[in-house]
UniProtKB/TrEMBL annotation:
EC number: 5.4.2.6
Highest taxon in the source lineage: Bacteria
Family stated for the protein in its record: Belongs to the HAD-like hydrolase superfamily. CbbY/CbbZ/Gph/YieH family.
Keywords per UniProt: Isomerase
Record carries keyword Isomerase: yes
InterPro entries the UniProt entry points to: B-phosphoglucomutase_hydrolase, Beta-PGM, HAD-like_sf, HAD-like_SPP, HAD-SF_hydro_IA, HAD_sf, PGP-like_dom2
Name of the protein: Beta-phosphoglucomutase
GO MF, one annotated term: beta-phosphoglucomutase activity
Amino acid sequence: MIKGFVFDLDGVITDTARFHYQAWAKIAQDDLGITINPSVNEQLKGVSRMDSLNIILKFGHRENDFTQEQKEVFATKKNDYYVALISHMTPADILPGMKEFLDELRAENYGMSLASASKNAPRILAGLGLTTYFDKIVDPASLRHGKPDPEIFAKGAALLNIKPSEAVGLEDAFAGIQSINGAGEFSVGIGDPKILHEADLNFNCTAEVSLAKIKAAYADQND
Ligand code: G16
Ligand code: MG
């Protein structure tokens, strides 16, 4: 039986990727002399701050040009700029259908936790007015491995005191679906089914996410 839901944040509840991109594009241009493009941005989704910087440096063939100390300065500068951008977020920035979906889950008393790689997740949930919906938030600083490793989604279920087999994970990134599947949870993909083909169930966009369809697909797989 489904007892709880573990959510990715960026791309599932709200679209922060555009702000990450804006902030990285500025730091890359101003401080690193690298011009990034949307295809680089795709590689940054769900990836930690320092790993994102390393991807950008590699893209610009500058991976050996800076000390760890200098890289920390760039990462902090990016974050300061990013935090300024997300400080304007409001409930209007919740992706279509997700507020209604969260309300439905709350009405049926499901546990809900957040499995985001972002250290800014609590701040973003506050801006969206969704803090009270989430019983637990996985602290990304506590993780040894990022997605696609199962650790983050496994913790998301453990924090709710439920078994992985009782948890549903929601993700928009292929690496996230791999993390959910690796944790032994039921995976729901949101986005292109060709990219998210390993998901147990897929919706093309957040507006299509349906609790009834998730329950039916979960029951099919578990009877
Ligand atoms: C998000 C974004 C990533 C970002 C990461 C860390 O992951 O998709 O692009 O690099 O968080 O964010 P921060 O610098 O705020 O700690 P997710 O897991 O919510 O998709
Ligand atoms: Mg995501």
